[in-house]
C-alpha cells in the first residue's frame, strides 16, 4: 500500500514538469541564433575598459553566459577585472523566451539589491534592443536600455542608455565591445 501511495505521489509531483519540457523548436529562429551566438564555445566575453579611474578601477569587463536546458534561454553574470587579477561581480542575468507573452525577457539583479526586468526586441540579423525597468534598493525606479550590435563572428557591442522619464528619449551613457574568449 505504501508503495502505491508513493508512486501516486511521485506521478502527481512530476506530471506538471513532464508537460513543461523545453522545446527550442517553438522559439523564433532569431532567438535561437542569439542564444547560440552568446553561449558558443565557453560563453565567455571580455571588453577592455577605456575609462579606468579611481572610481572605475577595472581594466576589463567580463560576461559569462551559460545556455539553459534545451537552449531556451541563458543565465549570465557581468563582472569587473582589476589589474591585480581580482574580480568583482556586478550583475547576474536570466534571459528566456516567455511563451505566454511571445517575447524575450531579460531579468537582472545585483549592485547591492537592484533588480531589472524588461524585453529584448530584435531588428534584423545584427541589432537588438533591451528596455528594462530597474528597482533600486532605495525605492527609486528608473528605465534603462541597451542596444546590442553583433559584429564579426567573435565580437559584439553593447551600448548602455538612460531612458529619460520625462521625454522617453534614450540618452547614451557608454559602450563596450566584447570579444569572445575561447
In short:
By secondary structure, the protein is α+β, with helices and mostly antiparallel strands. The protein has helices spanning 2-18, 29-39, and strands at 44-48, 58-67, 73-82, 87-98, 103-110, 114-122, 127-135, 141-150, 155-163, 170-181.
Textual characterization of the structure:
Helix content is 15%, strand content 52%. It is an alpha+beta fold and 182 residues long. The chain has a ten-stranded antiparallel β-barrel. β3 (73-82) and β4 (87-98) form a beta hairpin. The longest helix is centred in the first third of the chain and has 17 residues, at 2-18. The termini are far apart. Residues 3-19 have low confidence and may be disordered.
Secondary-structure blueprint:
Blueprint: H1 2-18, H2 29-39, E1 44-48, E2 58-67, E3 73-82, E4 87-98, E5 103-110, E6 114-122, E7 127-135, E8 141-150, E9 155-163, E10 170-181
Antiparallel strand pairs: 1-2, 1-10, 2-3, 3-4, 4-5, 5-6, 6-7, 7-8, 8-9, 9-10
Amino acid at each position: 500500500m505504501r508503495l502505491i501511495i508513493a508512486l501516486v505521489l511521485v506521478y502527481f509531483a512530476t506530471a506538471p514538469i513532464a508537460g513543461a519540457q523545453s522545446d527550442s523548436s517553438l522559439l523564433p529562429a532569431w532567438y535561437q541564433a542569439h542564444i547560440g551566438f552568446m553561449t558558443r564555445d565557453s560563453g565567455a566575453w571580455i571588453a577592455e575598459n577605456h575609462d579606468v579611474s579611481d572610481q572605475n578601477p577595472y581594466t576589463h569587463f567580463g560576461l559569462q553566459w551559460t545556455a539553459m536546458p534545451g537552449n531556451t534561454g541563458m543565465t549570465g553574470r557581468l563582472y569587473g577585472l582589476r589589474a591585480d587579477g581580482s574580480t568583482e561581480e556586478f550583475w547576474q542575468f536570466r534571459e528566456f523566451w516567455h511563451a505566454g507573452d511571445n517575447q524575450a525577457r531579460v531579468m537582472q539583479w545585483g549592485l547591492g539589491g537592484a533588480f531589472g526586468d524588461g524585453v529584448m526586441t530584435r531588428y534584423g540579423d545584427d541589432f537588438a534592443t533591451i528596455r528594462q525597468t530597474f528597482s533600486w534598493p532605495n525605492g527609486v525606479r528608473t528605465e534603462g536600455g541597451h542596444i546590442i550590435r553583433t559584429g564579426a563572428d567573435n565580437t559584439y557591442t553593447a551600448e548602455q542608455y538612460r531612458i529619460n522619464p520625462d521625454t522617453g528619449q534614450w540618452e547614451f551613457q557608454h559602450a563596450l565591445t566584447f570579444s569572445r574568449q575561447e
